[in-house]
Write a structure and sequence with these properties.
2 domains, 12 strands, Arc Repressor Mutant, subunit A, Jelly Rolls, four-stranded antiparallel beta sheet, alpha+beta
Length: about 230
């Protein structure tokens, strides 16, 4: 595939750049297996990553050493832009959830391109602000919402990012472990299993091989808004 076209797929924000500019980008293609780390928490923030295929989870290490999943990114998502733009170390780690291909662009080139193209800066800022709002809402839920509301919101968000709506039901075509969902909702695996088992009995959801079918999104939305 054309180098410039791959960059546009992995970095939709760069679609306005010419082929010549994209062909000059200092890019490295990373082919990861499940469990491979793109970067570690504390690494220099010197590169921006774009997901071409697969999924990447962003994890934060707590003081006790345990890692918590903060978010999951898929094709077309931008990773580590904030660290590059602010010139700070990576605030979290990025781990491939499955076979994943990412394109890694040197941070210096990305910042230079942003300086030459103010519209790119505006689009990047818009993406970062949207994520900040989502992160703020997530923190508010963790602080105030019941665990079922947090789990329902996490499932609906993953359905929005990775699911397909079929006749009012949301089919999430990628697998998520109960630990992934528990981390996103800020609860334990045991609680996640208990709640999801009840939702399965109520026929709100169905799951097989880690893949989840949200059969009654309106019920989960009602719970999420509690």
């Amino acid at each position: 595939m054309n180098h410039a076209n791959e960059l546009r797929r992995a970095f939709p924000l760069l679609k306005g750049l010419s082929d010549a500019e994209l062909e000059a980008a200092p890019v490295t293609r990373l082919e990861c297996t499940a469990g491979d780390r793109l970067f570690h928490q504390g690494d220099p923030g010197d590169a921006v990553y774009g997901v071409l295929t697969g999924r990447v989870r962003i994890v934060k290490q707590a003081a006790a050493g345990r890692e918590f999943t903060l978010d999951v990114f898929g094709p077309g998502d931008l990773v580590a832009a904030v660290a590059v733009l602010r010139g700070v170390p990576m605030p979290a780690s990025a781990i491939a959830l499955e076979p994943t291909i990412c394109l890694k662009i040197e941070g210096g080139w990305y910042k230079e391109v942003m300086d030459r193209h103010p519209e790119l800066s505006a689009r990047t800022l818009d993406v970062m602000m949207t994520r900040l709002l989502e992160a703020g809402n997530a923190r508010l839920r963790l602080a105030t919402a019941p665990v079922e509301a947090r789990l329902a919101a996490s499932l609906l968000r993953m359905g929005d990012k990775f699911g397909v709506n079929r006749n009012g039901e949301i089919w999430i075509g990628r697998s998520f472990t109960r630990q992934n969902l528990a981390d996103l909702a800020g609860t334990t695996v045991e609680t996640t299993i208990r709640v999801m088992s009840r939702w399965t009995r109520d026929e709100w959801i169905a799951s097989q091989g880690g893949r989840i079918q949200i059969r009654k999104p309106a019920e989960l939305q009602r719970i999420a808004e509690t």
